[in-house]
Protein backbone atom coordinates (compact mmCIF):
# COMPACT_ATOMS: atom_id res chain seq x y z
CA UNK A 1 0.00 0.00 0.00
CA UNK A 2 1.10 3.54 -0.59
CA UNK A 3 0.09 6.17 1.98
CA UNK A 4 0.64 9.92 1.70
CA UNK A 5 0.43 12.06 4.83
CA UNK A 6 -0.19 15.72 4.03
CA UNK A 7 1.46 17.72 6.80
CA UNK A 8 -0.15 21.01 5.86
CA UNK A 9 0.98 24.30 7.46
CA UNK A 10 -1.69 26.03 9.51
CA UNK A 11 -0.78 29.70 9.86
CA UNK A 12 -3.27 32.39 10.91
CA UNK A 13 -2.30 34.59 7.99
CA UNK A 14 -3.90 32.21 5.48
CA UNK A 15 -7.70 32.36 5.12
CA UNK A 16 -9.50 29.04 5.69
CA UNK A 17 -10.84 28.99 2.13
CA UNK A 18 -7.33 29.29 0.70
CA UNK A 19 -6.07 26.41 2.88
CA UNK A 20 -9.07 24.32 1.87
CA UNK A 21 -8.23 24.87 -1.81
CA UNK A 22 -4.56 24.06 -1.19
CA UNK A 23 -5.44 20.90 0.72
CA UNK A 24 -7.74 19.73 -2.09
CA UNK A 25 -4.99 20.38 -4.66
CA UNK A 26 -2.47 18.47 -2.54
CA UNK A 27 -4.88 15.52 -2.28
CA UNK A 28 -5.32 15.52 -6.08
CA UNK A 29 -1.54 15.42 -6.49
CA UNK A 30 -1.51 12.10 -4.59
CA UNK A 31 -3.33 10.17 -7.35
CA UNK A 32 -1.72 6.72 -7.34
CA UNK A 33 -1.61 6.47 -3.55
CA UNK A 34 -4.01 4.08 -1.83
CA UNK A 35 -4.59 6.20 1.24
CA UNK A 36 -4.12 9.93 1.85
CA UNK A 37 -4.26 11.46 5.33
CA UNK A 38 -4.73 15.08 6.45
CA UNK A 39 -4.22 16.36 10.04
CA UNK A 40 -6.53 17.45 12.83
CA UNK A 41 -8.57 20.69 12.57
CA UNK A 42 -6.43 21.92 9.67
CA UNK A 43 -9.04 24.50 8.61
CA UNK A 44 -8.83 26.50 11.87
CA UNK A 45 -5.84 25.04 13.74
CA UNK A 46 -6.23 22.79 16.78
CA UNK A 47 -5.31 25.60 19.20
CA UNK A 48 -7.39 28.38 17.60
CA UNK A 49 -10.11 28.00 20.25
CA UNK A 50 -11.58 31.42 19.53
CA UNK A 51 -12.29 30.36 15.93
CA UNK A 52 -13.95 27.00 16.53
CA UNK A 53 -17.50 28.34 16.78
CA UNK A 54 -17.15 30.77 13.87
CA UNK A 55 -15.54 28.22 11.54
CA UNK A 56 -17.63 25.21 12.62
CA UNK A 57 -19.38 23.44 9.75
CA UNK A 58 -22.24 20.98 9.46
CA UNK A 59 -20.95 17.50 8.68
CA UNK A 60 -21.72 17.93 4.99
CA UNK A 61 -20.30 21.46 4.84
CA UNK A 62 -17.64 23.05 2.62
CA UNK A 63 -14.76 20.86 3.82
CA UNK A 64 -16.82 17.70 3.29
CA UNK A 65 -17.71 18.86 -0.24
CA UNK A 66 -14.14 19.78 -1.16
CA UNK A 67 -12.64 16.59 0.28
CA UNK A 68 -15.24 14.23 -1.24
CA UNK A 69 -14.46 15.72 -4.64
CA UNK A 70 -10.70 15.63 -4.12
CA UNK A 71 -10.88 11.95 -3.06
CA UNK A 72 -12.81 10.98 -6.18
CA UNK A 73 -10.67 13.15 -8.49
CA UNK A 74 -7.55 11.45 -7.14
CA UNK A 75 -9.19 8.01 -6.81
CA UNK A 76 -7.81 7.54 -3.27
CA UNK A 77 -9.13 6.58 0.14
CA UNK A 78 -8.98 9.91 1.96
CA UNK A 79 -8.82 10.43 5.71
CA UNK A 80 -9.65 14.14 5.45
CA UNK A 81 -8.38 14.99 8.93
CA UNK A 82 -10.90 16.58 11.26
CA UNK A 83 -13.24 19.57 11.17
CA UNK A 84 -14.98 21.53 13.92
CA UNK A 85 -18.40 19.97 13.33
CA UNK A 86 -21.58 21.80 14.26
CA UNK A 87 -24.17 19.22 15.25
CA UNK A 88 -27.58 20.90 14.85
CA UNK A 89 -28.83 19.05 17.93
CA UNK A 90 -25.75 19.17 20.14
CA UNK A 91 -22.37 20.75 20.83
CA UNK A 92 -19.43 21.15 18.47
CA UNK A 93 -17.36 18.02 17.84
CA UNK A 94 -13.83 17.44 16.59
CA UNK A 95 -14.88 15.16 13.75
CA UNK A 96 -12.82 13.16 11.28
CA UNK A 97 -14.15 12.22 7.86
CA UNK A 98 -13.03 9.32 5.72
CA UNK A 99 -13.96 9.04 2.04
CA UNK A 100 -13.83 6.18 -0.45
CA UNK A 101 -11.99 6.55 -3.79
CA UNK A 102 -15.32 7.45 -5.37
CA UNK A 103 -15.90 10.25 -2.89
CA UNK A 104 -18.50 8.57 -0.70
CA UNK A 105 -18.40 9.01 3.05
CA UNK A 106 -17.06 5.77 4.56
CA UNK A 107 -16.66 6.79 8.22
CA UNK A 108 -17.07 9.58 10.75
CA UNK A 109 -15.06 9.61 13.98
CA UNK A 110 -15.69 12.13 16.76
CA UNK A 111 -12.58 12.61 18.92
CA UNK A 112 -13.06 10.84 22.23
CA UNK A 113 -10.37 12.47 24.43
CA UNK A 114 -10.64 16.27 24.34
CA UNK A 115 -7.50 18.21 25.13
CA UNK A 116 -7.18 21.16 27.53
CA UNK A 117 -7.74 20.12 31.17
CA UNK A 118 -11.07 21.97 31.58
CA UNK A 119 -10.12 24.67 29.09
CA UNK A 120 -10.03 25.09 25.29
CA UNK A 121 -11.21 22.08 23.35
CA UNK A 122 -12.18 20.24 26.55
CA UNK A 123 -14.96 22.75 27.22
CA UNK A 124 -15.72 23.97 23.70
CA UNK A 125 -16.38 20.59 22.13
CA UNK A 126 -18.37 17.52 22.97
CA UNK A 127 -16.72 14.11 23.33
CA UNK A 128 -17.25 11.23 20.94
CA UNK A 129 -18.11 7.83 22.43
CA UNK A 130 -17.75 5.46 19.51
CA UNK A 131 -14.70 3.51 18.32
CA UNK A 132 -14.40 3.57 14.53
CA UNK A 133 -12.78 1.02 12.24
CA UNK A 134 -12.93 1.02 8.45
CA UNK A 135 -12.32 -1.93 6.15
CA UNK A 136 -10.12 -1.06 3.15
CA UNK A 137 -9.27 -3.67 0.49
CA UNK A 138 -5.94 -4.59 2.13
CA UNK A 139 -6.22 -3.59 5.78
CA UNK A 140 -8.63 -2.46 8.47
CA UNK A 141 -8.05 1.07 9.74
CA UNK A 142 -8.64 2.19 13.32
CA UNK A 143 -9.18 5.95 13.71
CA UNK A 144 -7.93 8.25 16.47
CA UNK A 145 -7.21 11.95 16.92
CA UNK A 146 -4.25 13.74 18.57
CA UNK A 147 -4.64 13.58 22.40
CA UNK A 148 -6.19 10.10 21.97
CA UNK A 149 -2.59 8.98 21.39
CA UNK A 150 -2.00 9.15 25.16
CA UNK A 151 -4.74 6.60 25.92
CA UNK A 152 -3.61 3.07 25.06
CA UNK A 153 -6.95 1.54 26.04
CA UNK A 154 -8.61 3.30 23.10
CA UNK A 155 -6.15 1.64 20.71
CA UNK A 156 -6.63 -1.75 22.36
CA UNK A 157 -10.35 -1.26 21.79
CA UNK A 158 -9.62 -0.60 18.11
CA UNK A 159 -7.43 -3.72 17.90
CA UNK A 160 -10.19 -5.79 19.52
CA UNK A 161 -12.53 -4.41 16.85
CA UNK A 162 -10.17 -5.65 14.12
CA UNK A 163 -7.87 -2.68 13.43
CA UNK A 164 -4.57 -3.52 11.72
CA UNK A 165 -3.45 -0.01 10.75
CA UNK A 166 -3.94 2.86 13.21
CA UNK A 167 -4.47 6.27 11.63
CA UNK A 168 -4.08 9.36 13.77
CA UNK A 169 -4.73 12.93 12.70
CA UNK A 170 -3.18 15.55 14.97
CA UNK A 171 -2.24 19.16 15.66
CA UNK A 172 0.54 18.29 18.10
CA UNK A 173 2.63 21.11 19.57
CA UNK A 174 6.39 21.30 19.09
CA UNK A 175 6.87 21.58 22.86
CA UNK A 176 5.93 17.91 23.33
CA UNK A 177 7.43 16.47 20.14
CA UNK A 178 9.36 13.78 22.01
CA UNK A 179 6.09 12.45 23.44
CA UNK A 180 4.60 12.30 19.94
CA UNK A 181 7.36 10.13 18.53
CA UNK A 182 7.62 7.96 21.62
CA UNK A 183 3.87 7.36 21.89
CA UNK A 184 3.45 6.65 18.15
CA UNK A 185 6.12 3.98 18.43
CA UNK A 186 4.68 2.63 21.69
CA UNK A 187 1.20 2.23 20.17
CA UNK A 188 2.75 0.43 17.16
CA UNK A 189 4.75 -1.98 19.34
CA UNK A 190 2.06 -2.75 21.90
CA UNK A 191 -0.74 -3.11 19.34
CA UNK A 192 1.48 -4.75 16.70
CA UNK A 193 0.02 -2.46 14.06
CA UNK A 194 1.16 0.14 11.57
CA UNK A 195 0.75 3.66 12.92
CA UNK A 196 0.23 6.49 10.42
CA UNK A 197 0.27 9.77 12.36
CA UNK A 198 -0.23 13.03 10.45
CA UNK A 199 0.34 16.37 12.20
CA UNK A 200 0.37 20.01 11.14
CA UNK A 201 3.24 22.39 10.40
CA UNK A 202 3.34 26.16 10.97
CA UNK A 203 2.34 28.26 13.99
CA UNK A 204 -1.18 29.29 14.96
CA UNK A 205 -2.55 30.86 18.15
CA UNK A 206 1.08 31.29 19.23
CA UNK A 207 1.63 27.51 19.31
CA UNK A 208 4.41 26.22 17.03
CA UNK A 209 3.40 22.84 15.64
CA UNK A 210 5.63 19.79 15.81
CA UNK A 211 5.20 18.52 12.26
CA UNK A 212 7.23 15.29 12.23
CA UNK A 213 4.38 13.20 10.87
CA UNK A 214 5.46 9.62 11.24
CA UNK A 215 4.82 6.11 9.92
CA UNK A 216 5.80 3.24 12.21
CA UNK A 217 5.64 -0.49 11.41
CA UNK A 218 4.26 -3.21 13.73
CA UNK A 219 7.78 -3.88 15.06
CA UNK A 220 8.16 -0.26 16.14
CA UNK A 221 10.57 0.72 13.36
CA UNK A 222 10.09 4.21 11.94
CA UNK A 223 9.50 3.78 8.19
CA UNK A 224 9.32 7.50 7.46
CA UNK A 225 9.30 10.77 9.37
CA UNK A 226 8.66 14.30 8.13
CA UNK A 227 10.54 17.43 9.15
CA UNK A 228 8.95 20.45 10.80
CA UNK A 229 7.69 22.27 7.69
CA UNK A 230 4.83 21.64 5.29
CA UNK A 231 5.53 18.38 3.51
CA UNK A 232 3.87 15.34 1.96
CA UNK A 233 5.28 12.19 3.54
CA UNK A 234 4.83 9.21 1.22
CA UNK A 235 5.54 5.65 2.27
CA UNK A 236 5.03 2.19 0.79
CA UNK A 237 4.24 -0.55 3.25
CA UNK A 238 3.03 -4.14 3.24
CA UNK A 239 -0.14 -4.30 5.36
CA UNK A 240 0.20 -8.09 5.63
CA UNK A 241 3.06 -7.48 8.07
CA UNK A 242 0.57 -6.76 10.84
CA UNK A 243 -0.81 -10.30 10.69
CA UNK A 244 2.65 -11.82 10.27
CA UNK A 245 4.03 -9.91 13.28
CA UNK A 246 1.06 -10.90 15.44
CA UNK A 247 1.58 -14.55 14.46
CA UNK A 248 5.37 -14.65 14.90
CA UNK A 249 5.37 -12.78 18.23
CA UNK A 250 1.87 -13.43 19.61
CA UNK A 251 2.03 -11.14 22.65
CA UNK A 252 -1.53 -9.90 22.08
CA UNK A 253 -2.73 -13.44 22.80
CA UNK A 254 -1.19 -13.28 26.28
CA UNK A 255 -3.31 -10.42 27.54
CA UNK A 256 -4.82 -11.04 30.97
CA UNK A 257 -8.05 -9.10 31.33
CA UNK A 258 -10.34 -8.48 34.31
CA UNK A 259 -7.66 -8.63 37.04
CA UNK A 260 -8.68 -8.54 40.68
CA UNK A 261 -8.22 -5.14 42.41
CA UNK A 262 -5.62 -4.90 45.23
CA UNK A 263 -7.00 -6.20 48.54
CA UNK A 264 -5.79 -3.17 50.49
O1 LIG B 1 -1.28 15.51 24.21
C1 LIG B 1 -0.66 16.46 23.75
O2 LIG B 1 0.45 16.76 24.16
C2 LIG B 1 -1.20 17.25 22.60
C3 LIG B 1 -2.67 17.03 22.40
C4 LIG B 1 -3.28 18.07 21.53
O3 LIG B 1 -2.66 19.02 21.18
C5 LIG B 1 -4.65 17.90 21.03
O4 LIG B 1 -5.28 16.85 21.26
O5 LIG B 1 -5.14 18.83 20.36
From TrEMBL:
Keyword Nuclease belongs to the record: no
UniProt entry keywords in alphabetical sequence: Hydrolase
PROSITE patterns found in the cross-reference section: CN_HYDROLASE (PS50263), UPF0012 (PS01227)
InterPro entries: C-N_Hydrolase, C-N_Hydrolase_sf, UPF0012_CS
GO molecular function ontology, one term from the record: hydrolase activity
Domain CN hydrolase: residue ranges: 1-239
Top-rank lineage group of the source organism: Bacteria
PANTHER family, sorted: DEAMINATED GLUTATHIONE AMIDASE, NITRILASE-RELATED
Family to which the UniProt record says this protein belongs: Belongs to the carbon-nitrogen hydrolase superfamily. NIT1/NIT2 family.
Protein name: Carbon-nitrogen family hydrolase
Amino acid sequence: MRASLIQIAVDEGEPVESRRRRAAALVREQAGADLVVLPELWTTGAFAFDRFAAEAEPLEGPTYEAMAKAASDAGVWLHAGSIPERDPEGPLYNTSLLFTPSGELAAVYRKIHRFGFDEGEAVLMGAGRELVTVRLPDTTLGLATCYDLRFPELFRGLVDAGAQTLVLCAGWPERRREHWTLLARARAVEDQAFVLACGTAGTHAGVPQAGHSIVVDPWGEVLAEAGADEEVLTVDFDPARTGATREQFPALKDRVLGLDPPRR
